[in-house]
Amino acid sequence: SSGINAEYGGSTEVGKLLIRQCADTVTRVHMELGGNAPLIVFDSADVDRALNATMMAKFKNAGQACNAANRLFVHSSIYSEFVEKLSQRILALRMGNGMERKTDIGPLVNSKGSEKVRTIVKNTVDNAEIELIVSNENTDHSSELPYYSPTLLSCNSNTNVSIFHEEIFGPVAALYSFDTEDEVIHLANSTRYGLQAYIFTRDLAQSWRVSEALEYGMVAVNEGAISSACNPFGGWKESGIGREAGHFGIDEFTENKLICFGL
User: Fold this and answer.
1) Residue 32 annotated to the active site
2) In which element (H, E) is residue 55 found?
3) d(Cα 163, Cα 158) in Å, to the nearest integer?
């Protein structure tokens, strides 16, 4: 009937099911679905600023966020430096009860969630070209479900692994090195998702050029968090339909009507 909308925030698979169910009545849908965010660090980036943002974008809520950074693309000229510094920060994370102030990483939503992450990582490291750089297991909770240890993987240039294509939804980051701007744009866009991307560069022209080329509804430039009640939140491709927040969010729940009087 008129005025009815269907709104959903969650997995892409469930979102597709709801869209099919709404098709019979041509019900408007607003979908905020999954993500597989790339985080790109160019050679001109402020490395320490990029590291601070990476820790937030990847490990907030133990990686359980639709816009969490999953795939970290780092320019080859700063790759070693970035990996060393990021590894040290990951090892410093404290895992435990999320209600305690000393805790940095809390549990995943349930045992099924942690098993999913464990399976993705196992399938990835079983590939001979994948290197487990660090796994922070120096806590009392590392072997308990639904906890999962913060983990960093070096995938080199291998994109034929599940971790490149799947939404991780856990405290695991996959690292890739790149040499050229065109190369990393292609890698970042090689996914069915298009929710959010992160880029780090001091080159203003490059920031505009890359932001426009990335197939994502939101791009954070030199920032680890951009969500705000003022900013339209939503993605391209299989990451959703429509926007939340800002005046665009109101538009999702209104209908346009033309009333024309003959005078």
Assistant:
1) yes
2) helix 47-59
3) 10
